[in-house]
Fold:
Amino acid sequence: MNTDRTVPAPAGYVQPEIDVPALTGTLDGPYAGIRDLVRANLVTYASILEEAEELSVDAYRERVRDIVVAMARTGQTGMGFPKEYGGGGDVGASIAAFETLALGDLSVLVKVGVQFGLFGGAILHLGTERHHDAHLPDLVAGRLMGCFAMTETGHGSNVQALGTVARYDAAAREFVITTEGDQARKDYIGNAARHGQLAVVFAQLEVGGTAEGVHAFVVPIRAGGKPAPGVSIEDDGRKMGLNGVDNGRLRFDDVRVPREALLNRFADVTPEGVYESAIDNPDRRFFTMLGTLVQGRVSVGGAGVNAAKVALAVAVKYALRRRQFAAGSDGEEQLLLDYGLHQRRLLPLVARTYALHFAQDVVRAQLHDVFSGPEGDPQERRRLESRAAGTKALGTWHATRVIQECREACGGAGYLAVNRFAALKADSDIFTTFEGDNHVLLQLVAKGLLTDYASEFEDLDQLGMVRHVTGLAVETVIEKTSVHKLLERVRDLLPGGDEWDQEAGLLDSEYHLAMLRHREEHLLAGVARRLKAGVDRKRDPGAVFSEVQDHVIAVARAHVERLVLEAFVERTRAVPEGGNKVALGLLCDLFALSTIEADRAWFMEHGRLTVQRSKAITREVNDLCRKIRPLAGDLVDAWGIPDALLRAPDLVGGP
Structure:
């Protein structure tokens, strides 16, 4: 790779030396072994990247299925299942393996997610021993393919309102699954159109004429390769991307399944038709059930970050080879990455990718701890669900932004399919609505903040949240957020009161953290005031919430960005002294200051930035980009993306 620079680093700056293998080890963490296994498997099947452009949809689907089954034989896809069923018994490793799959063909990634994450995860976490014994050995080995049939044509995020019904027939000791109209049709269901044999079907349970809420059932959808009796299957057809995944629609016309088909970890029905559950509150029962499936959001968030890595690796490597326009009197054309604007376009995105990687490490570790031990603190689960929702939203939005920016940064070459951006863009776009629409997920994050993870959290819908918050003294919310203490802390970090040096403290991580904490907590107190004021005026709580939704989303984004920065700062501090620590420190500073810069209007409106200080931050961001410029190639190499997966021969090949 040609990394010669034509633009000097800032005066007095000593460029650190990066130990790329050691930095890869820092990024891979305790799961380096499973990540290397996945990388090796992806290289073995790297031809799928080319085949995806040439095969028919049917052939592409079959090829993806074959690869998924072959990967299952290596053990990489079963890491999260118990060892007694052929798995690896390591939840964290299963997430790490899935994230790494995003370096390759994303249809393979999603097929794995549907089969082992959604279908397998539902049976593992919602079922009991009878379901595990019956299905997990074949499922883990890839011999049994299945679906996760939750989403309906008329109901996506609002799972509690699903229209499919499961009525218990006590005389026959069977459940009767019925699609109640077109809006209750199961839609966009992965593995349904071609390969699925069983489906975990979410339906409204009725026992003795009493509605008991949404529950999950194992339902055969094919017999002998054809739709099972009473099951109608349609193909969703070509999609914007991910055409190696066979998404389809399912209808159920009085399909009968035995009583044992109910996934009964949290509730059961006796043979005589008596409904039983250890969780009395139906809302709490519902949210407990969905909470066990949180690993899907953790997985998709990590996959988004890794897809962004592929795009950035290609764009940065191209910018270190491609020359454009003469910059000096010698007439030699200048490397793209030596242009300040090109640095500005790519390097803050590299920094944010590192930040999100370390934030993903935190949520993955939390998931592993929650699901590997005994039943833990419900509040810990709520915190995990909130953090998973927020990290997934920011990670997948980041992927969408990065892929587009990198495509543009590669000019016309980026538009060629061989250079991966076409597939990355088409296949990853759905990530922003996979496992929950990102805006809905951020509302979940805000709900958790506003209720302070109270014990009532799982019982609150949006209107319940409004009523809960308006029942609090706003002063209590302000005291909990300690806004005034944060203001004092920020002021303390800026010596000299209003006359301090505009450049002072800009590279202090405590200053960065204080700024993001202040923004989050000021926004939180403000939305609490608005909710309370609206209800105090006797206005409809739903209308009040609708009016403050933009504020709610702003609170959630601010909260998650603060968590991301905290994760980055903590991980950087833990790295041994040396060039890698210096490089991560530069990236951490760039992430923090570019985040503040992007929201400078808010900070200026609320008295946290003067015009002069804002300009100083911009100068510092530019300076950090110049410092990181000679490290850029090593920084993307440390992600450990095999050359066979980058493809892009015209963009990343030798000089």
